[in-house]
Specification:
By secondary structure, the chain is an alpha+beta fold. The protein is built from three helices and four strands; from the N terminus they run ββααββα. About 45% of the residues lie in helices and about 15% in strands. It has a four-stranded mixed beta sheet, covered by helices on one side. α1 runs antiparallel to α2. The longest helix is centred in the middle third of the chain and has 18 residues.
């Protein structure tokens, strides 16, 4: 799956990694619902770090369609809330 981190670029991720990413996504969703800004910041950073660590970066000139778009590390709680589906940021 091709994942874009807004403002950074794209990475290719194996579907096998989505179990780990979904745990962080669930945690992020819970922190957003409770208004835990500090927890939200920490978990968003951990989620994006995991995507970077587990994924293979695509070249900047690659024109692959992104199947999943994640917020930038400095996105606000409100900006991320607007990006959410009922499953969170990551479907599944």
């Amino acid at each position: 799956m091709i994942v874009r981190i807004m403002g950074e670029g794209q990475v290719k991720l194996d579907n096998a990694h989505f179990t780990e990413l979904n745990k962080l996504d669930d945690e992020l969703l819970a922190e957003m619902e409770s208004g835990d800004e500090e927890g939200f910041r920490r978990t968003l950073g951990a989620l994006l770090a995991a995507v970077r660590r587990l994924g293979t970066p695509l070249p900047d000139d690659a024109l692959e369609p992104s199947e999943l778009i994640l917020p930038s590390p400095d996105a606000t709680l409100e900006e991320v809330r607007e990006m959410l589906s009922e499953d969170g940021l990551i479907p599944g």
